[in-house]
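Here is one chain, start to finish.
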Amino acid sequence: MRQSLPILVIPAKAGIHFALVTKIKMGPGLRRDDDDVGFARSPFPVPRSPFRPVAMITFDKVSKRYGPTHEALTEVSFEIGAGEMVFVTGHSGAGKSTLLKLIGLVERPTRGQIAVNHRQLARVKRRGIPDVRRGIGMVFQDHRLLTDRTVFDNIALPLIIAGTTREEIGKRVRAALDKVGLLAKEKESPQTLSAGEQQRVGIARAIVAKPPVIIADEPTGNLDPQLSAEIMNLFAEFGAVGTTVLIASHDLHIVKRLNKRVLVLDHGKLIDDFRPAA
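Its structure:
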């Protein structure tokens, strides 16, 4: 007479549960019948694969809510690779600035996963935020320059905070100034510069530590079309040498002219991911 033992559930390493069904033939001597051994699917749910980002910037179903009802971002997912230059655009209040704040750890998401430079931001504690930000160059519309410091000192600030030697600071600051065409202005006060020159100082400060990622929030918002084009050309040069660049902009003329990838937000939702033809 044959009897069946209860199902024994053995969790597999891959996260998939199998039920090992073993039938034992009862008789004068117990023996295992190999033909009666098989695998069956367990009714238990399969765990979701762990979050393993491979891109320089990864958003995985990210949402951000302010207060009980205002959803600034809803289920936003995308990846940006090394050396990509990408625009994020949309109407005022679409969520562009919120998206950049999440990357820079100014804000935390309500739901979802974010990774920057292969680092999962959800695992970063408060004391680790400065270390993450050292790998991100940030450019703002209002420049945020220190008016009581020279141009040189403003650009040197990230290096001073990082403990860079004085000799290395001098080399890097002057290289950054040369890159943005302001080498002759290093001893001047930011207040004596034009709006376009101030924005260039802000860009030089963002790149001086050679971060792998640059984010910019409406960097040409206060500039005329010619200056705007010059600033955007600078960002394109950074992308050409392997830096990942993400720019929030509502200037569709410039976005179209540069012919780069465009993420389109509408009321917090990603409604398009336009990729130009090669």
